[in-house]
Structures are given as C-alpha cells and as structure tokens.
C-alpha cells in the first residue's frame, strides 16, 4: 500500500494559491484571467467572476499597457524568462491602483506556452508616499532658495533666541556656503566687479 500525503499536493497548491498574501493569477497567453485568488480580487475590487470575464488588458492603465504587452511578447518569443514591472490597474470603483507585477510563463514539455503565472502586490501606498516626499523635498528646496535670498541682505539671524552670523547659520543648518559678493545663483551681485 502506498503512503499518501495527508494534505494532498493538489489541496496544498489550492490553499497556497487561494490564501496567498499577494495577488496570484493564472492568465492565458492572450491575457484572459483563468484563475484568481482572493487577494487580487481585494486589490482590484472585482469579484472572481468579474475578473474571469475580462482580460488583464481590460483593467490595465493605457499608459502601462504597451510595456506590459512588449514584455509578454518577449516571454512568448523566449527572449526573457520572467519580468517584473510597476504598473497601474483600474479598480472597479474607477480609482487607480499601483501594483508590482511579477510574471513567469509555464510551457509544455515540448516548449509550447501554456499560461502565465502572475504575482501582484499593491504598492499604491508606497507610490503615494514617494510622491508626497518628492513634493516636500521640492518645497524645502524652494524655501531654502527664498531664505538664502533674504539672508544675503542681513549679517545675523536669530535662532533659538540667540543671534548668530548668517554664514554660520547657512553652513550649519542648510549646508550652504556664501562667498562674499555672490548671489544665490553664484554670480556677482550687481554693482560688484
């Protein structure tokens, strides 16, 4: 009598697929969703039935579709084995969802393409945080430039109730260095020769 796996390999795969913390999907070579897990349904807002009635192209943002299709073409041609890219999906409610997509291709023993395995991670929050940081950095840079323009007209600045030389403040706090007779752009101040 042959020993059997108490979980069964099919059952184990089914559970790993369905309960994965990231979106998992099997996709036909034409782009039709063949099988999806709960996580991808949560990421996109679509039910399993909704997704199975669509293709990945239907929910991919048009600005990201050409790159995705080019990667698919390269995989089918055997030029690449896998690919990973950031792209946007349209959520069922119309909002944009940023994802990190990782794709591999399953082939028959003779090498014919069968289907894609896609792993999908929601990175919307990270993208939003990066945009906020970029905006904040641009604002800080703008404020530094304006402060430097103001500071070039004075010799001292008050910091924590204490007056310090402006060049000391700029060097210590903003990591900037003024040279006599120069403006923020580094050129001579008008009237200087």
Total count of strands: 7
Count of individual helical segments: 7
Mean pLDDT: 84
Give the name of the CATH architecture of one domain: 2-Layer Sandwich
Q: How would you characterize the overall build of this protein?
A:
- The protein is an alpha+beta fold and 193 residues long.
- It has a domain at 10-122: PAS domain (Beta-Lactamase), CATH 3.30.450.20.
- The chain has seven helices and seven strands, in the order αββααααβββαββα.
- The strands form two sheets. It has a five-stranded antiparallel sheet with strand order 2-1-5-4-3, sandwiched between helices. A two-stranded antiparallel sheet has the order 6-7.
- A hairpin with a 5-residue loop joins strand 3 (82-90) and strand 4 (96-107).
- It is elongated.
- The chain starts with 8 loop residues before the first helix and ends in a 19-residue tail after the last helix.
- The relative contact order is 0.09.
Lay out the secondary structure.
Blueprint: H1 9-18, E1 23-28, E2 33-36, H2 38-44, H3 48-52, H4 56-59, H5 62-76, E3 82-90, E4 96-107, E5 113-122, H6 124-151, E6 156-159, E7 162-165, H7 166-174
Antiparallel strand pairs: 1-2, 1-5, 3-4, 4-5, 6-7
Brief overview:
The chain has 193 residues and is α+β, with helices and mostly antiparallel strands. It has helices at residues 9-18, 38-44, 48-52, 56-59, 62-76, 124-151, 166-174; strands spanning 23-28, 33-36, 82-90, 96-107, 113-122, 156-159, 162-165.
List keywords for this structure.
single chain; 193 residues; alpha+beta; Beta-Lactamase; 5-stranded antiparallel sheet; two-stranded antiparallel sheet; 7 strands; elongated
């Amino acid at each position: 009598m042959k020993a059997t796996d108490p979980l069964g390999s099919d059952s184990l795969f089914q559970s790993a697929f369905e309960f994965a913390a990231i979106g998992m999907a099997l996709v036909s070579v034409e782009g039709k969703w063949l099988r999806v897990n709960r996580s991808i349904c949560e990421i996109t807002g679509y039910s399993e039935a909704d997704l199975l009635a669509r293709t990945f192209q239907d929910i991919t943002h048009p600005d990201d579709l050409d790159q995705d299709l080019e990667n698919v073409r390269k995989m089918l041609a055997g030029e690449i084995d896998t690919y990973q890219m950031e792209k946007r999906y349209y959520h069922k409610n119309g909002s944009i969802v940023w994802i990190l997509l990782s794709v591999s291709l399953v082939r028959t023993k003779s090498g014919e393409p069968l289907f894609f395995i896609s792993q999908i991670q929601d990175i919307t929050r990270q993208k939003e945080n990066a945009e906020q940081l970029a905006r904040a950095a641009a604002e800080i840079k703008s404020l530094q430039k304006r402060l430097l323009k103001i500071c070039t007209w004075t010799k001292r600045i008050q910091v924590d109730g204490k007056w310090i030389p402006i060049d000391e403040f700029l060097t210590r706090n903003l990591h900037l260095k003024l040279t006599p007779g120069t403006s923020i752009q580094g050129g001579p101040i008008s009237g200087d020769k």
